[in-house]
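Dear support,

Our group has been running a series of protein-ligand predictions, and this particular one with 3,4-dihydroxyphenylalanine is the one our PI (initials K.S.) wants archived with full inputs and outputs. We had some confusion internally about which version of the output was final, so please treat the block below as the authoritative record. The input we submitted was:
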Amino acid sequence: MEKDLQAIVDEATQKLNSVTDRPGWDSVKATILGPNGSLTQLGKGIGKLAKEDRPVFGQKLNRTKKEIEAIFKSSLSLIEEKEDLEILGPEIDPTLPPPSNFTGGTHPLTNTRRKIVSIFRKIGFTVAEASETETEWFCFDALNTPEDHPARDEQDTLFFPPNSNWSNIKQKNKESFVLRTHTSSVQIRTLLREKPPLRIIAPGRCFRRDTVDATHSANFHQTEGLYVDQNVTIKDLKGVLDFFLKELFGNKVETRLRPSFFPFTEPSFEVDLRAPNIGKLSDQWIEIMGCGMVDPKVLQLVDLNPDEWSGFAFGMGIERIAMILHGIDDIRHFYNNDFRFLSQFSHSS
Ligand code: DAH
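Confirmed final output from the archive:
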């Protein structure tokens, strides 16, 4: 029987030599230490021995069992080491250069917004913000936009269901909640909170019920501007916008104000620009934003006396500015998260 014990040790060593993974190790273990394993079966034979031989055999059996368990243990640690190396992957040569120096970057719309903000900051404007969810009064009524104005139509504006309740957004009366269609509503929120003189720009996200195409998106970004003080004139408006557009597009840019209409400004204008350095759009007049002198009715609606206070306002699309600056011809590029597109802007700021 002693010979048999040694044979089992040899059997275990030999079988484990060709084992390379855990399932193989488990099955070898079963053939030796399992209920039907060779060592277990041999142990059962103890009953057949003469009584006086049993203690000696028992001791030998235990020693062999320990020896075999040690063999299995060291075999398992080799397998575990191999598994760890598989997880770690191939060996790395730390002297090689890194595969790429990609560090992530900001979105082109973020870059453009920051550029706009930093220009206005130079001339004393601060950033004002308000919620993307608005009420009809702040988005339309307070901006002198009549009840039957087409912008308020359900085909153009995204309304919340009638019994929606946004406890953190102040309503004027019991009017409906909407997703703001422009950042002009921040003018009203600010004028009700702060006393003039004030100069703010309000960048943010807006929503319209637009069909998506190369130049329209149901979700887009604007920057509103508002300047309220005493004796503000169209000259101030033109001076500020000229400064801004020169900073953005360079000194060669020409600008012009073209008469237009917005309910909240009187008079109102579209701002056009012409520049020699804007790719396909170079050297032609292009529309860039809306602006005007704050309508006295708007001032009255926020309890300011139009005889004492005056101001100008303007609003522009951030996507449009980014598209002109970078020669982008489809607004959808901004939202598709295509890395090939986004990575082209990751180093500009
Ligand atoms: N809110 C206008 C729009 O969404 C843009 C605009 C035009 C804002 C004229 C103004 C402004 O402040 O004076 O098209």
